[in-house]
């Protein structure tokens, strides 16, 4: 089984049916269109690194099924070392792209989570979901597939459950069960890396009750499946994404709305069909692993921000060491989210089905840090860079090179005689992109909200037990229970 190359990957995307839209335009080739080519480039670099001796051990591994070399993002994470490589890969990707590559992330986690959940469902119901999943995983490994993952539904009225919504498609649902498969309809929103992916792994967006069993759905579909319309959503950089030159980097990420209308999914691609009892398990296992690993995402981008801050200092005529205390604070933030995530993995354990599940308490604690610390890192990066990176007062690439007045703009931008105006401009644009533009990953709500994470921390923090520790240490002999709630 030969590893796929960048060229193989790009060819696979070009062969897909166009079904991605933006600004009312059908994107016929996602590899070249300005709205999507940057996210494709980000993912393509993973294939480059699979063949690079410096990174190959991170981006490739050996299949636990076949013993052949595969791209790591299609692998089974069966022990602590393997799931730690998930974090290593994420941090490395951010270091070489500056941004998210969702097609190498969520689908990978989903296939591992569903390996465990299908084991449990098969054991209780006598289904054959895990065997179906294994066959698909083998195909994903052989083809080196890039697989986006989709959990977040449009949701509709947040006070109502899916089955109570006035529009039943507010959440992705099973509309019809046939002998040879299912028909699905509904909306998934804010899904990362779809335009750069070959397939999409669909999971339920929450834990469901019996009344919501039609929404208990897990399957994988080709990105160009008939009946799916993909709408790439607006990002902060949209006003510049069609620009030339250094206004934004050659990498990037996109988000999408997935609009499913009567899509047929054959049985061999269906791994949950109305088994609502296990939707909570999917969310439990998925968030534990995902929120452990995303600490590496923001750490990797934070590494690039330290570097960008240092470039700005130097092109301004100052030594980076002038800002060493701020840089140290940035580094501490990076290592905190990375380290807490690794801790969550280390405290986890192997599921009886074989895949690793991180510790929920530590993983959700990490999510809260991911929703806070990167913003301080971004503030420090802007602080070091100065007004040129943060106020939005910067000439465009076209103005910078205008034949009439461009030379004057360049003289105004130039600072240190040691560096060209373009070097300073590129550094400034990078900081702006990382801290204000589309380089900003979903720190706050990516992978779920911090408030949701706090609920898990609350549920897993045994206050009464800790109070007992304190009572005994203090030598208190009487019981000190929680006061009874007053009746209204």
Protein described:
The protein is an alpha+beta fold and 488 residues long. The strands form four sheets. It has a six-stranded mixed sheet, with no helix packed on it. Strands 5-8-9-12 form a four-stranded mixed sheet. The longest helix is centred in the middle third of the chain and has 37 residues, at 279-315. The chain has two domains: 6-280, Butyryl-CoA Dehydrogenase, subunit A, domain 2 (Beta Barrel); 287-459, Up-down Bundle (Butyryl-CoA Dehydrogenase, subunit A, domain 3), CATH 1.20.140.10. The chain has 16 helices and 14 strands. It is globular and about 75 Å long.
Précis, in short:
It is built from 16 helices and 14 strands. With 488 residues, the protein is an alpha+beta fold.
Compute the number of helices: 16
Helix and strand composition category: alpha+beta
Within CATH, the superfamily of the largest domain carries the name Butyryl-CoA Dehydrogenase, subunit A, domain 2
Beta-strand content estimate: 5-15%
Shape: globular
Gyration radius, rounded: 24 Å
Instruction: Report the helical percentage.
Output: 40-55%
- Largest sheet strand order: 2-1-10-11-7-6
Tell me, rounded to a whole number, the average pLDDT: 93
Largest sheet: 6 strands, mixed
Low-pLDDT stretches are: none
Under the CATH scheme, which class of the largest domain?
Answer: Mainly Beta
Cα distance spanning the termini: 68 Å
CATH architecture of the largest domain: Beta Barrel
């Amino acid at each position: 089984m030969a590893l796929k190359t960048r060229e193989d990957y790009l060819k696979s995307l070009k062969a897909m049916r166009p079904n991605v839209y933006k600004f009312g335009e059908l994107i016929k080739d996602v590899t070249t269109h300005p709205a999507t080519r940057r996210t494709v480039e980000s993912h393509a670099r993973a294939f480059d690194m699979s063949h690079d001796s410096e990174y190959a051990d991170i981006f490739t591994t050996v299949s636990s099924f076949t013993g052949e070399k595969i791209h790591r993002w299609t692998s089974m994470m069966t022990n602590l070392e393997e799931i730690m490589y998930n974090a290593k890969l994420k941090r490395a990707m951010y270091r070489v792209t500056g941004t998210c590559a969702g097609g190498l992330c969520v689908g990978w986690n989903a296939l591992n989570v569903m390996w465990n959940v299908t084991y449990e469902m098969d054991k209780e119901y006598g289904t054959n979901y895990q065997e179906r999943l294994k066959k698909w995983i083998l195909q994903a490994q052989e083809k080196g597939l890039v697989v986006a993952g989709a959990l977040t539904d449009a949701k509709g009225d947040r006070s109502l459950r899916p089955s109570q919504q006035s529009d039943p498609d507010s959440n992705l649902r099973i509309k019809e069960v046939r002998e040879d498969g299912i028909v699905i309809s509904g909306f998934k929103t804010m899904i990362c890396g779809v335009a750069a992916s070959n397939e999409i792994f669909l999971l339920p967006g929450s834990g469901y009750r019996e009344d919501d069993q039609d929404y208990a759905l897990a399957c994988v579909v080709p990105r160009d499946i008939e009946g799916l319309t993909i709408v790439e959503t607006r990002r902060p950089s949209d006003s510049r994404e069609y620009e030339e030159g250094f206004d934004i980097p050659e990498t990037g990420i996109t988000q999408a709305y997935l609009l499913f209308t009567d899509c047929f999914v054959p049985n061999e691609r269906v791994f949950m069909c109305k088994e609502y009892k296990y939707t909570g398990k999917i969310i439990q296992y998925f968030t534990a692993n995902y929120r452990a690993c995303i600490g590496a995402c923001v750490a990797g981008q934070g590494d690039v921000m330290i570097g960008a801050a240092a470039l700005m200092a130097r092109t301004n005529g100052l030594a980076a060491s002038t800002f060493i205390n701020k840089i140290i604070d940035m580094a501490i933030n990076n290592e905190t989210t990375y380290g807490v995530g690794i801790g969550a993995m280390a405290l986890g354990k192997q599921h009886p089905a074989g895949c690793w599940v991180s510790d929920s308490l530590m993983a959700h604690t990490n999510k809260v840090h991911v929703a806070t610390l990167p913003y301080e890192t971004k503030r420090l990066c802007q602080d070091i860079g100065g007004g040129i990176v943060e106020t939005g007062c910067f000439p465009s690439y076209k103005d910078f090179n205008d034949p009439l007045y461009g030379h004057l703009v360049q003289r105004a931008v130039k600072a240190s005689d040691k560096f060209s105006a373009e070097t300073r401009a590129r550094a400034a644009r990078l900081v702006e992109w990382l801290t204000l533009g589309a380089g900003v990953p979903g720190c706050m709500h990516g992978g779920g909200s911090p408030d949701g994470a706090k609920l898990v921390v609350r549920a897993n923090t045994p206050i009464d037990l800790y109070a007992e520790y304190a009572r005994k240490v203090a030598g208190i002999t009487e019981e000190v229970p929680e006061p009874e709630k007053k009746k209204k």
